[in-house]
Specification:
The chain has ten helices and eleven strands. By secondary structure, it is of the alpha/beta class. It has a domain of 214 residues: NAD(P)-binding Rossmann-like Domain (Rossmann fold). α1 packs across α7, α4 packs parallel to α5 and α6 crosses α10.
Length: 314
């Protein structure tokens, strides 16, 4: 699919990932700005029928659906009901209306949280249904996974071209650093930058540090999503990741050095680690549409820390 002459809706297009996808479309695919529409929640509540109908009142060829209600472990534990409801309602009716309006392609974005809690590493797409997700993020993960069921069902019955991508944890500049919503990397960066600024001697961190995660730089994630939009047209889900696994305690050591924090850390093992391990098999994305992450992890973290330091001073 040649994107530069398409009308494209990017839900969540003003957000952390969405803004990078929009930039990628304009700068690397030469999509004119006027061909990209970013619905803002103030005017388009995509959880409502009216909001969705208004969204499709103008012609559109492609929907890249990035809008979601999401956050870190604490946010997931406090808001399981709203996370399930919002993400179901942000997904299912939107795809249905897109189908009825004759959209040429729908790109649904899932989450690594959809995988079972205990999954052989690296996670393969075929393992997606081999168990229940980790409990703290199961409502979110299962709600997002319904877009895969819907995509496959609509392709089978209606011939609707919907694809489903499974990105890992993202990080990078312009991430959400609000401690009530942020994921692990921005949360840690904020903790250590603030602790350094206030000469705090001890920083407490949730869990044991023994859980592992895979992280993908946001610019790489955007490139993977756009490549799939251009080149992938099959019903099977596809992982989008870096293929790099790191334990949280090692991640903490790196961020301490990058933020120049001089104090100590205390692990609060009474708090959950979340899923024990996360690392994706990324071979399918390369085989199907040539995606491979390019950003070095340490360099990506350095850019993220530098961005936050500047943003905090502004």
């Amino acid at each position: 699919m040649i994107l530069k002459d398409k009308k494209i809706i990017v839900t969540g297009g003003a957000g952390f990932l969405g803004s990078e996808v929009v930039r990628n479309l304009m700068e690397k695919r030469n999509v004119p700005k006027e061909n990209i529409f970013i619905p803002r929640s103030k005017y388009y509540d995509l959880r409502t029928e009216g909001g969705i109908i208004n969204l499709f009142s103008s012609p559109c060829d492609v929907v890249i659906h990035l809008a979601a209600n999401c956050g870190g472990i604490g946010y997931n534990m406090e808001n399981p009901g709203s996370l399930f409801y919002d993400n179901i309602m942000l997904g299912v009716p939107l795809m249905e209306e897109a189908r009825k309006c004759g959209i040429k392609k729908f790109v649904a974005i899932g989450t690594v949280c959809a995988y079972p809690k205990f999954t052989d590493v690296p996670f393969k797409e075929g393992d997606l249904w081999n168990g229940y997700p980790e409990e703290t993020n199961a409502p979110y993960g299962l709600a997002k996974k319904m877009s895969l069921v819907q995509s496959q069902a609509y392709r089978q019955q209606y011939g609707f071209n919907s694809i489903f991508l499974l990105p890992v944890n993202l990080y990078g500049p312009n991430d959400h650093f609000d401690p009530n919503h942020s994921h692990v990397i921005p949360a840690l960066i904020r903790k250590f930058v603030e602790a350094r600024a206030t000469d705090k001697k001890i920083v407490e961190i949730w869990g044991t540090g023994n859980a592992s995660r895979e992280f993908l730089y946001v610019e790489d994630a955007a490139e993977g999503i756009v490549l799939a939009t251009e080149k992938y047209d099959k019903p099977e889900p596809v992982n989008i990741g870096s293929g790099f696994e790191i334990k949280i305690n090692k991640l903490v050591d790196i961020i301490i050095k990058l933020t120049n924090y001089q104090g100590e850390i205390k692990w609060n093992s009474s708090k959950p680690d979340g899923q024990p391990r996360r690392c994706l098999d990324i071979s399918k994305a390369y085989e199907e549409f040539g995606f491979k992450a390019k950003t070095d992890f340490i360099e990506g973290l350095r850019k993220t820390v530098e961005w936050y330091e500047i943003w905090k001073k502004s």
